[in-house]
């Protein structure tokens, strides 16, 4: 149920990955030839090392990173829940991207995973070919290894599909004998991903003591992929791009939503059998390595396999002069959290406005650090009176390393880690968790018109989080509840930007708008909460961005590859 990554080194060749796993990155690569490759696959230990190495793909996206942006929570900062604090290139690159759609072009894709994704896909295709043609492993072990390979291949293709829609499908090593390859339709790409995941689900174990992919992980990813394909089929309708290969037939939306619901049901059945469960303590999910919410995760262990999430997001006094505060929650996210009784929070409510952080729902306190919050033995002061942790206007300095919204991230920080500057961090990255499965089921069922079942799963999650039950009688009510729950429950887990894209709502919510924070100042009787812009300029999301261009150099190198229309 977890994924322990044995190496973070980039796969350079078939044997390069093996020797990196054994010795690290500073190796001389052995020339690749048939005899050496056969020897690798004839050795069960070598085969095991190679297969374990393909899971490094998940590290590229851990803690909401995007490969070419390189900062935790970068994907949330592309949407409305997080504001990056810097306005200079580097950790301020996200702000540059969201402020001007023209930053995206075929020469500078903005979100570029093409070369990295296809490198991984080739190595997996080499692996599958080697396992089946050159190894002396048992047939059963071959099937499990191929299932693992196809699980990771599906993950890589899913990212390519989310970015570009129509991409090249490499299904086997036979295709690599030709230099030039055409794009497949977006519909064919999603069908291939689902085919890979069905194979993985059919052949992966229910439990994996080695800490890799399981049936539950394959079905969860299948449920996620089916939901995306169904959403594009329902909402895109060729409104935003006239490329003949992008888009999915609206007639297939119900089919994809059913695939999603059926896959989610498989995971729910596993949970009913005791394998997974919603955690009683939302805050502890992300630091508890034994949580039953985790379906697939990336684990870390000091001193060799660590990360720097705490260094990037802890409030300044956690390690004064060292914390980086890459990003902070927006007021738009903070306002989304309900009151403890399940009613909506509103600044127009006089009682709530006087004490805006009192009697909020449990997930608020587990996600947001706010003015007056208790954190690591101190009370946070995010008002204008604190020169270290208090509010500063965005743009007042290039890299302020403090809040520009009046808030700090709480979710996924380790409250016990006081030495993260020296020793870094080891909390797991949960790529897939059970709460998402319930939200997928609720959405898929709502889209299929089964509002009773959608209500059941929304309420199962809400009640575990200490909130009241809802009654959802139609698609509008159900989808509003799904969007709210996904925004709150999955905050800082890298979903929001992609949700808005698949629902084709990004151009409505992320364009021509400035997101905000709360400038908190003392007055004669208490505190004043002033809504202030956290953006220097209006954000920009053109409908062209629903399908990002293929990197121009790839089009130039591949004679059969055409650019996405409109770019």
Automatic annotation (TrEMBL):
SUPFAM superfamilies: TPR-like
Ranges of residues in domain RagB/SusD: 292-567
Span of domain SusD-like N-terminal: 86-227
PROSITE patterns attached to this UniProt entry: PROKAR_LIPOPROTEIN
UniProtKB keywords: Cell outer membrane, Membrane, Signal
Localization per Swiss-Prot or TrEMBL: Cell outer membrane
A Pfam family hit: SusD_RagB
Listed GO CC annotations: cell outer membrane
Family assignment from sequence similarity: Belongs to the SusD family.
Protein name as annotated: RagB/SusD family nutrient uptake outer membrane protein
Organism: Sphingobacterium paramultivorum
């Amino acid at each position: 149920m977890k994924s322990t990554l044995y190496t973070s080194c980039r796969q350079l060749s078939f044997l390069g990955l093996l020797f990196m796993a054994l010795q690290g990155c500073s190796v001389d690569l052995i020339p690749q030839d048939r005899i050496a490759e056969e020897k690798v696959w004839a050795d069960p230990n070598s085969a095991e090392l190679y297969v374990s190495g393909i899971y490094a793909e998940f590290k590229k996206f851990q803690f909401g990173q995007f490969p070419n942006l390189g900062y935790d929570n970068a994907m949330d900062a592309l949407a409305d829940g997080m504001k990056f604090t810097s306005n200079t290139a580097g950790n301020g690159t996200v702000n540059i991207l969201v402020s001007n759609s023209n930053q995206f072009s075929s020469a500078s894709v903005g979100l570029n995973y093409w070369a990295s994704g296809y490198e991984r896909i080739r190595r997996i295709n080499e692996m599958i070919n080697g396992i089946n043609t050159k190894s002396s492993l048992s047939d059963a072990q071959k099937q499990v290894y191929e299932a693992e390979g196809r699980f990771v291949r599906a993950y890589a293709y899913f990212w390519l599909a989310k970015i570009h829609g129509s991409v090249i499908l490499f299904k086997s090593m036979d295709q690599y004998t030709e230099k030039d390859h055409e794009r497949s339709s977006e519909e064919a790409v999603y069908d291939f991903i689902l085919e890979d995941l069905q194979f993985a689900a059919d052949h992966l174990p229910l439990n994996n003591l080695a800490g890799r992919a399981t049936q539950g992980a394959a079905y969860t990813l299948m449920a996620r992929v089916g939901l995306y394909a169904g959403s594009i089929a329902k909402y895109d309708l060729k409104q935003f791009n006239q490329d003949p290969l992008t888009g999915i037939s609206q007639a297939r939306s119900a089919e994809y939503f059913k695939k999603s619901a059926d896959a989610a049901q498989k995971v729910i059945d596993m949970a009913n059998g005791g394998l997974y469960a919603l955690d009683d303590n939302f805050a502890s999910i992300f630091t508890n390595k034994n949580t039953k919410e985790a379906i697939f995760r990336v684990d870390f262990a000091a001193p060799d396999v660590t990360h720097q999430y705490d260094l990037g997001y802890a409030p300044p006094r956690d390690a004064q002069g060292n914390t980086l505060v890459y990003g902070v929650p927006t007021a738009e996210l903070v306002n989304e959290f309900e009151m403890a009784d399940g009613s909506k929070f509103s600044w127009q409510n006089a009682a709530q406005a006087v004490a805006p952080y009192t009697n909020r729902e449990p997930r608020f306190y587990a996600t947001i650090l706010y003015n007056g919050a208790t954190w690591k033995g101190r009370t946070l002061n995010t008002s204008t009176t604190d020169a270290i942790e208090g509010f500063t206007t965005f743009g007042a300095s290039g890299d302020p390393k403090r809040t520009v919204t009046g808030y700090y991230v709480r979710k996924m920080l380790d409250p016990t880690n006081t030495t993260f500057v020296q020793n870094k961090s080891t909390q797991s990255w949960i790529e897939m968790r059970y709460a998402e499965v319930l939200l997928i089921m609720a959405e898929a069922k709502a889209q299929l018109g089964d509002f009773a079942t959608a209500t059941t799963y929304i309420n199962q999650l809400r009640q575990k989080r200490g909130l009241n039950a809802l009654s959802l009688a139609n698609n509008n009510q159900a989808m509003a509840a799904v969007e709210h729950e996904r925004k709150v429950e999955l905050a800082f887990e890298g979903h929001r930007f992609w949700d808005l894209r698949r629902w084709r709502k990004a151009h409505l919510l992320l364009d021509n708008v400035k997101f905000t924070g709360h400038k908190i100042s003392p007055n004669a009787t208490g505190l004043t909460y002033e809504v202030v812009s956290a953006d220097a300029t209006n954000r920009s999301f053109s409908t062209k961005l629903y399908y990002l261009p293929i990197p121009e150099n790839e089009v130039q190198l591949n004679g059969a590859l055409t650019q996405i229309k409109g770019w």
